[in-house]
Amino acid sequence: MEIQPFFDEQTSTLTYVVHDGRFAVVIDPVRNYDPKSARTSWRSAEEVAAHLDREGLSVPYVIDTHAHADHMTGLPFFKARYGARSVTGSRVGEIQRVFRDIFDLGDAFPVDGRPFDVLIDEGMRLRFGSLEVEALHTPGHTPAHMSWKIGDAVFLGDTLFMPDYGTARCDFPGGSASTLYDSIQRLYAMPEATRLFVCHDYRPGGRPVEHQTSVGEQKRKNVQIDAHTTREQYVAFREKKDAELEAPALILPSIQVNIRAGELPEPAANGTAYLKIPLDKLGGCGR
Question: Is 280 within the bounds of a domain?
Answer without folding.
Answer: no
